[in-house]
Amino acid sequence: RFALPATFRNVTVADIQYSREVIGTDRQVAISVTVENTGTEAVTPGGLDLIIGDKTLHDPGPGQLQPGARETVRFLHQFKDAGAWTVTARVKAGDELAMDDETVSVCQVVPQLGVLLVDGSGAARFMERSSAYTALALAPSTLLKPAMEPSGKKKKDQDQQEEWKSGVLLEPEVVPLSRLSQISDLSTYQVIILTDVPRLPDSVARRLGSWVQGGGGLLV
């Protein structure tokens, strides 16, 4: 066996973390990169790059790192398309072990999440329903834009509506409780929210139970 060197310089990219688990194309996500000095000498990296597709984000780096010290650098990035993205963090260390100067992470960006809001209040007017404020909070642009059209102006055509809907992660659909049993396929929804629903028919409750066991998210 060869003896380990008494002193050596080494900085490694220890970790890549995202600020939230569900990432869409609707807004920026914070990406935190942790850099650690695993050597025996102080090192001042020459900068830190975050490479996402054909885009490179640069940070001047955490400054001088003492042996054993860890620092986190935070980047902001908005993905333009859904799918799997390769995120590469690379520190310019100029140290004696180049193979750990880079770490790769795969980020899964989702297109849209279907949300079904079941309203049990029975109110006729939208703003009087129990689900109104929840629906507006989840996707205000898709629900408010038609209402904000100036009077006398033609509504947006289907292509224009799809254009501004495509930038929204959550796409809520509000149905009264009486229509829940008529929805034959729940697999198109990732989340179902029951608002002011006192009870469910047995058949509907069993379907919801199976849907939750299959990975769906239910909020009561």
How is this structure best described in words?
With 220 residues, the protein is of the alpha/beta class. Helix content is 16%, strand content 34%. Strand 10 (191-195), helix 5 (202-213) and strand 11 form a beta-alpha-beta unit. It starts with 10 loop residues before the first strand and ends with a strand. The model is unreliable at 144-156 (pLDDT under 50).
Label this structure with key terms:
four-stranded antiparallel β-sheet; 220 residues; alpha/beta; four-stranded parallel β-sheet; 34% strand; elongated; 11 strands
Question: What quaternary form is this?
Answer: single chain
Shape: elongated
The stretches of 5 or more residues where confidence is low (pLDDT under 50) are: 144-156
Number of strands: 11
Instruction: Supply the helix-strand structural class.
Output: alpha/beta
Short overview:
The chain has 220 residues and is of the alpha/beta class.
Furnish the topology, listing elements before pairings.
Layout: E1 11-18, E2 29-37, E3 48-52, E4 55-59, E5 70-77, E6 83-91, E7 102-109, E8 113-119, H1 132-138, H2 140-144, H3 158-165, E9 170-176, H4 177-180, E10 191-195, H5 202-213, E11 217-219
Parallel strand pairs: 8-9, 8-10, 10-11
Antiparallel strand pairs: 1-2, 2-5, 3-4, 3-6, 6-7
